[in-house]
Design a protein that fits this description.
Length: about 190
């Protein structure tokens, strides 16, 4: 079983993917780590790297080739990526979404309270984080539309869609496990 997970920024993708991988005893691949590392190497935040990638298509093409080969060579893993659902079409495709203000609150908490190194702009307010999320999503839509003619947030592309705005990570996991099991048993 291959599960591809994507979602809006701040929707809990990483938390959910890691926990699902443990529960289901699957390998976990986090493509965002590759992009964040590349951004850091270039002295950029992830937002700057995304805008730079709009003009430098090779940045995405290498990663997408890696994803595609992974889907051809391996089985039994979870992959966190904006585009894995497209490049591994036989995966169970999950989209997590959340209200943008809740997403901004979560990201601010990670940046300021948990001191998580997300390699993002150090937003100082909820409003600033909301604007940053909007710009990031616009940039991703533009890049992937130009490269592959896909919208990474179009719900029509996914098998399972879950709004995580008002539910805990544990509840998200329970709901997803139920939906995954129903999908794999049919």
């Amino acid at each position: 079983m291959i599960i591809s997970i994507t979602g809006t920024p701040g929707s809990g993708k990483s938390t959910v993917a890691k926990e699902l991988a443990k529960i289901l005893n699957l390998n976990h691949y986090y493509i965002g780590a590759i992009q964040r590392k590349r951004a850091k190497e270039k002295g950029m935040t992830i937002d700057e790297y995304n805008r730079w990638s709009e003009q430098n298509k090779n940045a995405d093409l290498e990663i997408e080739e890696y994803i595609q080969k992974l889907g051809e060579k391996e089985d039994n893993f979870i992959i966190e990526s904006r585009t894995a659902w497209h490049f591994i079409p036989h995966s169970i495709k999950i989209l997590l979404k959340t209200d943008i203000k809740e997403a901004a609150r979560r990201i601010l908490m990670d940046l300021h309270e948990k001191k998580t190194d997300r390699n993002e702009n150090m937003y100082q307010s909820l409003e600033e984080a909301v604007e940053g999320i909007k710009k990031r999503m616009e940039s991703e839509r533009k890049r992937y539309t130009n490269l592959y003619n896909i919208d990474p947030y179009d719900e029509a592309n996914f098998d399972i869609i879950l709004d995580t705005t008002n539910i805990s990570p544990d509840e998200v996991i329970k709901k997803l496990l139920k939906k995954i099991r129903a999908k794999t048993s049919s």
